[in-house]
Design brief:
about 260 residues; alpha+beta; three-stranded antiparallel β-sheet; globular
């Protein structure tokens, strides 16, 4: 297994400024043999601004707290009901989602009087789909901190994550959220490779829990450019609104790259 950079840290405004990073990416053009976390860390630290350094330290603290929470038994496998309904929700037709035509999630909901719409934005070789929220004649792109009311519980945090995951999936190319062995069976690559049997060998169990005042969620995705990745999220709430929602760790379990340039 390889640790990989959380995407919010890895994405640079202008990565070409860091010649070492560019050289490393060119050497690793198909990403199958990504550099270990420690080497990327040294390269990217040279071009980090103050905010990124602060974020990096927050991520380190979150990893420590998550591991301590696991030791104390605060992090447990997500129950069957929530994984089952989460998988169903993420496979729902987009029109049902936009029209709020569902009963789950029920502990993470849009603010009253909010409606959703989809916008298509052209960029490069593909179109980008963005979810917008209209409320009192004001329209803005969906923001989980601004537009959701969330029950202050482990189940509420999980459902908020599921809601955000649906929106992330809308703008992705064959991104799979894997909560069970049945989800693995649906994985198909852009080259129509069937990796389901191979992926069955890995633990994709989602984990949830609360430690101190933080909720933690650990889950697996399969992407066309990266493969099977376990990501860990930290969520905090205040007055039933999300105040923190961030990926603090990514672990590459099974490396894969489809080879297509999009």
């Amino acid at each position: 297994m390889k640790l990989i950079w959380p995407f919010n840290l890895f994405a640079k405004k202008n990565p070409t400024q860091n010649k070492k990073a560019v050289q490393a990416m060119e050497t690793d053009s198909i990403h199958r043999d990504r550099l270990p976390w420690e080497e990327w860390e040294k390269i990217m630290e040279e071009d980090m601004d103050e905010n990124e350094i602060i974020e990096k330290e927050k991520n380190k603290l979150s990893v420590i707290e998550y591991n301590e929470a696991k030791k104390q038994g605060c992090i447990i496998p997500c129950d069957f009901k929530n994984t089952f309904f989460a998988s169903r929700f993420l496979s729902m037709e987009i029109n049902h989602f936009l029209n709020n035509n569902y009963t789950y999630p029920d502990k993470a909901k849009l603010l009253a009087n909010c409606t959703l719409s989809l916008r298509i934005k052209k960029g490069g070789a593909r179109n980008f789909r963005k979810v917008f929220v209209s409320n009192n004649n004001k329209e803005s792109e969906f923001n989980i901190k601004e537009h959701l009311i969330v029950d202050d519980s482990v189940e509420g945090a999980w459902q908020a994550f599921i809601f955000q995951s649906y929106i992330d999936k809308i703008n992705s190319i064959k991104l799979y959220f894997l909560f069970s062995k049945d989800d693995v069976k649906s994985v198909k690559t852009l080259g129509n490779e069937d990796l389901s049997l191979e992926l069955q060998n890995y633990d994709i169990t989602p984990y949830v829990g609360k430690y101190k005042n933080k909720y933690f969620i650990s889950y697996c995705t399969f992407s066309q450019w990266g493969g099977l990745i376990r990501q860990n999220i930290e969520i905090t709430l205040a007055n039933n609104r999300i105040t923190t929602y961030r990926v603090f760790q990514g672990i590459n379990i099974y490396s894969y790259d489809c080879g297509f340039m999009i």
